[in-house]
Amino acid sequence: MSSLTTLRSAVRGRVLLPGDDGFDAAHRPWNLAVAQRPLAVVEAADAADVAALVAFAADRGVPVAAQPSGHGATGRASGAILLRTARLDGITIDPVARTARIGAGVPSGALQRAAAAHGLTGLPGSSPVVSVTGAALGGGLSWFGRAAGWISDSITSFDVVAPDGRARRVGRDEDPELFWALRGGGGDIAIITAVELALRSAPALFGGRFLWPRTRARDVVDAFRAITADAPRELTAWLQLLQFPGAEPMIAIDATHLGDAAAGRALLRDAELVGGRIADTFAPLSTADVGSITGEPADPAPGRSRAALLTAFDADVFATHPTDPLLTVQVRHLGGAFADPTDNPHGPLVEPFAAYLFGVPATPEVDEAIRARQTSLLDALSTSGRAPISFLSPSESLADALPPASLERLRRLKAERDPDDLIRGNFATAG
Predict the structure, then answer these.
(1) CA-CA distance, 355 to 333, in Å (whole number)?
(2) In this structure, are residues 352 and 312 in contact, taking their beta carbons and an 8 Å threshold?
(3) 3-state SS track over 30-81
(4) Of 172, 48, 25, 35, nearest to 103 (Cα)?
C-alpha cells in the first residue's frame, strides 16, 4: 500500500484507499455475490486522469481494472487499482452524420435519450443503466440486434489509454488489430475513455410485455415458438419464466417491433390469442424508453447466473421443467443480422436463441439449489457449448464464448501490447 500513498497527487479525481470512508461502497460490484477487493479506487475526472493513472500504475507495476459501474465484474479487480469511469459521461450527437461521441461511462439509457431528441437511436440492450462501452466490449446483444447486428459493430472508433499510459485514437485505419480486439474481445488490452458510434434513424417502435400465470406455460411457449419461427428482422421476442418472491410463478413474452403498432400486433397475434393474461403493456414507445420493457433492477444486488447459446428451441423443456428457486429464465430470439458476416472477435452468431438463468443466492443452501437447477435446465437444453461474453459467469472464461482462432489472436495481441498484464478486463485474455 505504501506505493500508492502518492496516488492522490497523480490524479484530479477522487481516490479512496482501504479504511477510507466510502471505500466499501466505491468498490462494490453490481453483482454483490462477487468478491472484489481492489488496492484502491480512482474515480477519474476525465480522460487525462485515466492516462495519468495508467502511467502511475505502470511505473509501480500495479494493475488497473476499469469499470464504469461494476456490471460484469468477476473479481479480477482484486489486487488492482479499480478505475471508475462513470464521470466520463459526455455525449455529442451529430444528427447530420448520424453519429455519437460518448464517454466510457455513458449508460445506454442516456445515449438513447440524447439520440431520440434528434430522431435517432443507438442499439440499446435490456438495461438502461449498463454502459454502452461495457456492452460493446462483450459484443453486445441489443433489442434491435436482429435488425442491426452486434452493438460492437456500430462502433467506428475508440479513444484509449494504452498500457504505457499513452492516449490515442483507434479505428479501422488506425491500429486495426486493436480496433478488432476491442469490438467484442473483452477489454483486456487497453482502457477505453470514449467511443464514436453510428446511429440509426429511429423508426416507429412498438413494444411491451404480455404476462400470464405459469399455468398457461404450454400455450405461451407454443405461441413464442410460432412467433419466432418466421419473425422478420424488425421483430425481437424474448420468453421469460418468472418467479418473484411471494408471488405465483408467471410467464411472459417481451417484444419490440421496429414498425407501427398495427403491424406489431399482427406479428404477435399467436401470443395475443392466449387467454388468461395478467397484463398487457404493449404500446407505441420512444426508443428512449425501450429499457423499461423488462423492468430490470436499477440497483446492485447479489445474483448467480448461467447462460448458453441454444441450437434449437426446446419447447417441452420451457413448458414443463421446474425453475424454482430461479428468479428468471430468459430465452432471447437471435438470428437475423446477428448471423450476418462480421469481423468482430465473436464472429457471426449462428445459434438462434440464447438462454439466461438467474437466481438470488440468499443463503448457502439456496445458492446450492440455484446451481443445481441451472445445471439440470442446461443439461436438458440443446446448447452449442458457448455463451456471449456479456452473459458469462465469473467462473467462466473467454474460451467459453469466443472461437479458438479469435482467442489465440487476442492472446498474441495481449502478449505484444501488455506482457505484464497491467490492464485487467473482467475476463483474462491469457491462460
Answers:
(1) 9
(2) yes
(3) CECCCCCCCCEEEECCCHHHHHHHHHHHHHHCCCEEEECCCCCCCCCCCCCE
(4) 48
* Cα 100 from Cα 119, distance rounded (Å): 13
Is the distance from CB of 423 to CB of 191 less than 8 angstroms?
Answer: yes
**Among candidates 18, 112, 127, which has minimal Cα distance to 68?**
127
Comparing CA positions, the residue from 101, 144, 119, 92 lying closest to residue 286 is 119
Cα 125 to Cα 105: distance, rounded to the nearest angstrom:
15
Digit-coded pLDDT (tens) for 109-121: 999 999 999 999 9
Residue with cell 425501450: 290
d(CA 333, CA 335) in angstroms, rounded, equals: 7
CB-based burial label for 32 (10 Å; 0-12, 13-18, 19+) = middle
- Contact assessment for residue 422 and residue 413, using Cβ atoms and an 8 Å cutoff: no
For the record, the C-alpha cell of 303 comes out as: 445474483
CB atoms inside a 10 Å sphere around CB 270:
18
pLDDT tens for each residue of 287-299: 999 999 998 887 8
Instruction: For 86, list phi and psi in degrees, rounded to 5.
Output: -60, -30
User: Rounded to an integer, what distance in angstroms lies between the CA atom of residue 317 and that of residue 31?
Assistant: 28
Q: Which three cell numbers stand for residue 222?
A: 407454443
Rounded distance, CA 212 to CA 251, Å?
5
Q: Rounded to two decimals, what is the model's pTM? A: 0.95
Measured from the Cβ of residue 167, the count of other Cβ atoms closer than 10 Å reads: 18
- Rounded Cα distance, 415 and 202, in Å: 42
216 contacts 319 by C-beta, under 8 angstroms = no
